[in-house]
Design a protein that fits this description.
The protein is an alpha+beta fold. It contains four helices and six strands. Strand 4 (177-179) and strand 5 (182-185) form a beta hairpin. The protein is elongated, with a radius of gyration of 46 Å.
């Protein structure tokens, strides 16, 4: 029996050693596979891989083109909406002036005092210009200023003026206006010769 036990122990040791060697060999093969460079692809495989990449890039490009087209359409729609309703702010601020003018028109027949009506209209005009000034509009003060073709439009020349007045604006027939530092209407003026 002692022999059997010893044989079993020896057999067990051999089996354990064999398992350990197999495990080591398996680990070495795994390490070799991990450290080995990937095998070189054949030309057909390379072509297939490149065609796959091309298809992916085409899809990405189509998505980007569609996304840009949607963005462009959205911006155009917003721009059209702004153009359509852009003046609503100014018109809304002008509505109180229109109300004042309508009240003045209704009351003109009731008042016999022309001076009171004139004063009321002048107040409405002042209110109107203050409102426009808040929106960035400025009226040009041109009489006595040197003629500037960037601001003025000469519609008449006034001869026989003193030397110090030559080239200066003598009279303004139509007022000019500047909106946010941009001329929106040139002043029509008479210039001294």
């Amino acid at each position: 029996m002692k022999k059997n036990i010893k044989n079993e122990e020896v057999n067990e040791e051999i089996v354990n050693e064999s398992v350990e060697e197999t495990q080591k060999a398996s680990d070495e093969q795994t390490e070799k596979k991990e450290t080995e460079e990937p095998r070189e692809l054949t030309s057909e495989e390379k072509i297939a891989e490149l065609e796959k990449q091309i298809e992916e890039l085409k899809k990405q490009q189509l998505y980007k083109v569609a996304e840009f087209d949607n963005f462009r359409k959205r911006v155009m729609q917003e721009k059209a909406e702004l153009i359509k309703n852009g003046g609503s702010k100014v018109i809304t601020t002008l509505l109180p002036i229109i109300d004042d003018l309508e009240r003045a028109q209704q009351n003109m027949d009731k008042y016999e005092d022309v001076a009171a009506v004139k004063e009321g209209v002048n107040l409405i005009i002042d209110k109107f210009f203050k409102l426009l000034a808040q929106e960035g509009l400025k009226k040009m003060e041109v009489v006595g200023e040197a003629f500037d073709s960037d601001l003025h439009e000469a519609i008449a020349m006034v001869p026989g003026q003193p030397e110090d007045m030559k080239g200066k604006v003598m009279d303004c027939m139509t007022a000019g206006y500047i909106l946010n530092d941009k001329v929106i209407r040139y002043a029509k003026v008479a210039v001294a010769e």
